[in-house]
Amino acid sequence: MKFRMKMSLAMLGVCAIGVGRAEAGSQFLGNAASYNVFAFGNVTQNGGDSKGALAASGNVVMSGTSVAANLSSSTGDSLVVGGTLNFSNGQVNNGNVRGIGVVTYATGVGLQGGQIYYGTQTGNNIASYITSSYASNAGIATNFFSSTQADLTAKSAELAAQTANGTVSGSNSLSLTGTSSKTNYFNLTAAQLAGATSLSISAPTGSTVIVNVSGTSVSEAGGFSLSGISASNVLFNFYQATSLSLSGISFEASILAPDAILSGKNGNADGNTIVAGINDNNSGFEFHTGTYFNGTPLIAVPEPSSVVMMGMSAVVGIAVLGFRTRLGRRSEGAQA
Question: In which region does residue 290 sit, left (phi positive, over 0), alpha (psi from -120 to 50) or beta (all else)?
């Protein structure tokens, strides 16, 4: 009977704690996983490059910039625009351009190895300046952006709810240290990042690092370094941010900031950058590939209360059964 009670209590503990869910980076980021930049609104980019593919659900204005220079294949989509596209003095490399709205492709813009698919075109811009073929079928699923936004906004909140198991030390030189071979969670505030001139992260090789940053207005500048951990396994989750500023920094991590407008200056972000929008006006900020998020965050998922109640009922039931059994034995002994 003692054994049964111990087993029941153990089962109850499992029910109360819940289970964990792990998703690889390509699964966790869903539609955005293969994009260097994925924006849920407008993008203005003057002078800075996106070395990988870029997608934006709103309007895109580009000048003096290039897209997808690091992509090796010309069969995929390099630039996907849910609104209007106005592109001048630049280049789209190794892929297609898809625009649901008006596509204006001005003088001085090239397209290498792909096609332009558009909703409507302005004048003869596309036919005049692009030698490759084009078609009047944008080919973008109607819920492509909305479903991705809903999915990643929910996942951002889910990551933010996890319990931190890493340590944070320092102020001017901010140091994050994790020891888990699986997932290392850290909690930072916008004030901590703004006050630091350097940021270093140390964690076991092969593990995943999630840095949850609170605060609506976030800015970061200065040094950034990693030890043990690969940049492709690091994700910064700016779950409350509506404004995100990166200046003079090589940000070696992927960014999840579904509600933030990003502005960058004299630096670069590596990996996936997922934001509400980008306002980059002649700053030369770049987005680099090669370190797309490939971590496997382990997320604790509490069991529904109904399951916990079932576990409690089982414990109570076994306890009552044990009491009745002991009472029956005592009664038999008294009669004897």
Answer: left
